[in-house]
Amino acid sequence: MNNEFAMNKHTIVLIGHYGSGKSELAINLALESAKTNSTILVDIDIVNPYFRSSDIENELKEQGIDMIKPNFAGTGVESLSLPADIYSVFIDSHETVIFDVGGDMTGAIALGQYKRYFDMLDNLEVLFVINTKRLSTSTVEDNISFIQRIEAASRLKITGLVNNTNLSNETTVYTLLEGFDVVKAVSQEVNIPIVYTVGEPKILNDFLQNDSLEQNFVGTPYPINRYMERDWDRFLEKHQRPKEK
Predict the structure, then answer these.
(1) pLDDT per residue as tens digits for the range 118-165
(2) What is the DSSP string of the chain?
């Protein structure tokens, strides 16, 4: 492995349950990084065939972002496999590498096969993205159990938490505040810091005006734009084949 590239490369691994918003965050982080650094987004979400970061591959390429995606991603084929060239991101000259990882044991196991390469990196963040408005990650206990299982399957340690609590277009500042209490408790229980609190700009700004917030559990406020399709009707309208006349 090229030690020079390993020392200079910033690698971010985003793991989250289905509906956590990790792909949306991955896209925003990649777009921000690409303004100053050579950036590649690695979509290894082989769990959920819909709403992956690779769905907007062309738009990302226009912004100078390279991408690696599961074989057959974007073709409608639900049997996905990982391409061999994922290994290249550990040794190439990209300054920023962002992994968008499938949010269950299958995704974690897929990630684990690269452990020895991750171990060689000097600047690695493994972030667990939490949306407390999803049934499987709504409680403190659910999230702690999920973290433990993901760490065991991937053989990687979670280094930071992300509060991305949202209800898509129905999100309010109160949604994010409710999520704050759960994510704070998770952070205290597992002793993992909260790295980001994520939200659309106005909601995030209103959230930060709350005097009762403990800043140690906010992390860096991270405003995001929405790029992914958020509901099935819009998704099907965009992607279905036109009707024959």
Answers:
(1) 999 999 999 999 999 998 899 999 999 999 999 998 999 999 999 999
(2) --HHHHHH-EEEEEEE-TTS-HHHHHHHHHHHHTTTS-EEEEEE--S-SSS-GGGGHHHHHHTTEEEE--BTTTTT----B--GGGGGGGTSS-SEEEEEE-SSHHHHHHHHTTHHHHTT-SEEEEEEEE-TTSGGGSSHHHHHHHHHHHHHHH-----EEEE---BTBT--HHHHHHHHHHHHHHHHHHT--EEEEEE-HHHHHHHHT-TT--GGGT-EEEE----S--SHHHHHHHHSPPPP-
**pLDDT tens, position by position, 196-219:** 999 999 999 999 999 889 999 999
Which CATH topology does 3-239 take?
A: Rossmann fold (3.40.50)
